Amino acid sequence: MTMKRTEETMREEGRSGDREHRPNTRTTEVAGRSSGGVKSAEPVVTVENLSMYYGSFKALQDVNMRIDRNSVTALIGPSGCGKSTFIRSINRMHEIVPKARVEGKVILDGEDVYAPDVDPVRVRRKVGMVFQKPNPFPTMSIYDNVLAGIKLGGKRKKGELDEVVERTLRQAALWDEVKDKLKQGGTSLSGGQQQRLCIARTLAIEPEVILMDEPASALDPVSTQKIEDAMEDLKERYTVVIVTHNMQQAARISDYTGFFFIENMGDPGRLWEFDETSKMFSNPNRKETEDYVTGRFG
Amino acid sequence: MSSIHGNPSGYGRRKLMDRVMTTLAYLCAAAAIIPLTWIIVYVVIKGLGAWDAEFFTGLPQLFGDGGGVRNGIVGTLVIVGLATLMGVPIGVMAGIYLAEYGNNRFGTVVRFLADTMTGIPSIVVGIFAFGLIVVNTGGFSAFAGSVALALLMIPVITRTTEEIIRLVPDSIREASLGLGVSRWKTILRVVVPTALSGIVTGVLLAVARVAGETAPLILTILGTNFPISANIFDGPSTTLSLQIYQLGAQPSPEVVEVAWGAAMLLVLIVLGTSILARVIFRGQSVRGR
User: Fold this and answer.
1) Shortest Cα distance from A292 to chain B (angstroms)?
2) Contact B181 A152 (CB under 8 A)
3) What CATH number is associated with residue B265?
4) Within this chain, do residues B214 and B82 fall inside the same structural domain, yes or no?
5) Do A138 and B181 touch (CB under 8 A)?
6) One-character DSSP codes across A17-43
7) How far is the C-alpha of B65 from the C-alpha of B50, rounded, in Å?
8) Whole-prediction pTM value?
């Protein structure tokens, strides 16, 4: 493990050195970005030449991205340019859609999640997901909702269940609001509370990566604030990839930002630019990125 | 500038039309429930006189005071119970299959056959069970009757279960799959529980429905005025529905009154089942609200 890490770091440095000589490098190479960055540069997910199809329609083309451990990566861009499609390909959730298929590699902890012997169920236990609309299980109490992944996944740790519920609800900034009504139905909560419940539910399976698909788009500003606060703490233990349409949110919470864009109608979506958030929002390399983050279109 | 007062756009006429249509709709709704109420009231008036201790404990007496329908009550419980045991698992599981995996040619065929089976007259199902079981086992039996009733239940339960499960929002399935729960556990522990109130309601209605079936039973259990055969695989049996038909055709007014009593009991059982379904799942729908 140590060996591997050193190698990664060396490769990283090599690549970042390269980059200085070619300032106008394309996004695909930007993926190997400067290692003098925000945190340790150990990648947890590496996406290589990922293209995605729905039937014969190509939704996404040649995405390359490196997601560092314990970072928050925001994905921004106009609607319909493949952001949600992209994060679903990381935990193979796109497979629910008939005729969806993927080309390229998604490497999670050194293993390709699309290798033939990989069980998508196991991938999803390592890469949790929070959806756009809160979707707690309607037949379960708040308590059981949090534990659903543990109980239904067959990974049952005896005796620690109460502790898991309290810890994850605290991490999701929901504990104080629900600690006296854990036996009530999960759908009895408000929309913002339901979404935090869904976050707690995802944390309970202890994933390494948490994918969030516009988790706050259906929520009021107060709930959004609470979810953002929770994410600040989540970074300590998890890696977060979040799709958002809210530019301020991306700027506030993320370490890295990826901008997805479609140049011409009907083209597949591409990762147009990917860099540290501070750079993306102050001095991006590409004009479209700048136009988008400054609100000139989209 | 036009005023919002006055009547340039026919507001008065629109208001009148609104009243007329509302009243019409109200009357139609009332007309729809009149027959139901009428049937219940009429059956109770006619049948209440027959309800005494002997009605529940005795056997039919074609001569004399008419006796009771104990054998029919027991027979209904046995035959409908057996039909439920056979029909519900098959029907519910077929429905789950169609909803979750049935978007293929096989599913289309099964769905089409189920719809066709729903429309087959029950007497035809009865003669099928007669040919298949009664002829081959050498006699009428409660088992043959319950097979016929199960065949009538299965397509109804299959299609209601499928429809109800399809109502479960995909976001719930995604939530479960996204937590790394396998497909079969998602269906078994998340989708089916979410749809459970609807499935149980559908099952209870199907059970209530076949509890009133008569035609297929004439050909399979024959009917008897004696205690029903203790062996479900051999010997005639009877049910309340069959007794209404057979005792109601008797010349003696006392016997006909017993048939009315049986009709009242059957109506109350069916009504009770429907009410039970509502009470158990009061306020619950497929969204669990």
Assistant:
1) 30
2) yes
3) 1.10.3720.10
4) yes
5) no
6) HHHHH-TT--HHHHTS--SSSSS---E
7) 10
8) 0.81
Residue B286 domain-assigned?
no
B175 within a domain of the structure (yes/no): yes
Same domain, yes or no, for B22 and B104? no
B35 in a domain, yes or no?
A: yes
- The distance of B181 to chain A (nearest Cα, Å) reads 5
ipTM: 0.80
Q: Do B194 and A139 touch (CB under 8 A)?
A: yes
Range of the domain at B19: 11-49
Query: What structural domains does chain A harbor?
Result: 2-132+208-293 (3.40.50.300)
List, for residues A66-98, the tens digit of each pLDDT value. Answer: 999 999 999 999 988 889 999 999 999 998 888
Residues B45 and B73 in one domain: no
Give the separation between CA B152 and CA B148, rounded to whole angstroms: 7
What confidence tens digit (pLDDT) does each residue in A26-74 have? 443 344 444 344 445 688 999 999 999 998 899 999 999 999 999 999 9
How far is Cα A80 from Cα B30, in angstroms, rounded to an integer?
51
Q: SS3 letters for A106-166?
A: EEECCEECCCCCCCHHHHHHHEEEECCCCCCCCCCEHHHHHHHHHHHCCCCCCCCHHHHHH
The residue assigned the tokens 């009550």 is B73
Q: B125 with B219, same domain? A: yes
How big is chain B, counted in residues? 289
- Reduced to 3 states, what is the DSSP secondary structure of residue A218? coil
Measure CB to CB from residue A135 to each of B172, B182, B196 and give the nearest one: B172
> Which regions of B19-160 does DSSP assign to beta strands (E)?
none
Residue B157 lies in a domain: yes
The tokens for B12 are: 């008065």
Structure tokens that stand for B228 in this block: 């029903």
**Which tokens in the block code for residue A103?**
């080309």
Number of domains within chain B:
2
Are B218 and B277 spatial neighbours (Cβ–Cβ below 8 Å)? no
Residues B156 and B204 in one domain: yes
Query: Cβ of A149 and B189 within 8 Å?
Result: no
Separation in Å, CA of A291 to nearest CA in chain B: 34
